[in-house]
Amino acid sequence: MMRRIAVLDAPTNLGLRPPTVSSVPGCAKAPGALRDHGLLARLRARDAGCLTPPRYDPGDWRPGDGVCHAPEISAYSAALADRIGAIIDRGEFPLVLGGDCSVLLGSALAMHRLGEAVGGRIGLVFVDGHSDFRHPGNASYVGAAAGEDLALVTGRGQPDLAAIEGRRPYFRDVDVVVLGIRAQDEYRLDLQAAGITTRPVPALRAEGAARTAQWAHEQLVDCAGYWVHIDVDVLDPAVMPAVDAPDPGGIAFAELEILLAGLVDTPHCLGVELTVFDPDYDQDGAYAAEIVNTVVAGLAPVVAPGALPPRLLPSGPVTPVPRTGNGRPERGSVPVPAVAVDPVGPPAVGDEAVDGSRPGGPVLPWQPAPDAEEPGAAVGPGLLRRVAVPDADTAPSGEDPPATDGPA
Known about the structure:
By secondary structure, this protein is of the alpha/beta class. The chain is built from twelve helices and 16 strands. An eight-stranded parallel β-sheet has the order 2-1-3-8-7-4-5-6, sandwiched between helices. A two-stranded antiparallel ribbon has the order 9-12. Strands 10-11 form a two-stranded antiparallel sheet.
């Protein structure tokens, strides 16, 4: 039994300000840069294609006009939700490659639709260097959706973004866990007042990445499942400067790898999105390669032979599931779900349709994924060195700075 990953490109940069008057944000190039380093082959993932965004054009936007590109972001989010929902309906695990953090609106809309369909609530694990919680209630004006995405998906802000299809909020405050923000984040007290659970970098490092992932599971025990958002600016600029708003005090690649592995090592994790990597600041591709190494190792539990298929818990309070290892439920210990995606496994001979599908689910490549290796010894000021993960040849087979407000 295993889960198949489906990689969907969402190369939108609509939620960011232009880096200069005459340029556009480079994060739209991120999916291509990551693919160039063999991401799909190393994950043995299905290529779910690319959702092309509208043109980036702030036009004559001025402060006080609301979120820049709002109509375009709203339409793109609805289309992205359709694509994510279709992947989940196939029994697959979506990996969405952004793009800026405004892709969270599409993921959030997909999760709200799913929660409504199964009669439960879907939670959010928000791994980000910034809280992205600017909204009209705590700022003089808003403008860049990538700096406001968490506020929007929890129902704060203009209805054309915060209430697409009349759904508001997409995630309840109590169903959100924020990991990796800096200790002095501008909106940390607003998060606390809202009842949003947070673990800033100092606490994350003190408790450890594996225990933090388990703690996040426990915070969302009342949810039917959860989505994971990862902004690579959660990493320290010493190891990942290729973002639009680098902020000192982040975590290391090895810590992100362990955290991601712990978060996805449960059938109740429904998918992951990766945002804000900007290849314009990565001339030799070294940072793209490191991101790919981390994602491949971090997602190894999803495609491991013993991984359980995605399952949704019943709505309402449930008893925490006994877990072994780094978060995988013991066999036979998963509560009976209200709705479960049909398990998928090796196709029977002659069972494959022309389009690659088969009764009961998609055809899966039935081989184990390469296991993640353990991180090495500590190096530098509190950062960890990670051990290399096999590359494609050897493997088998900003958002905007929170302190300012600008046009995008």
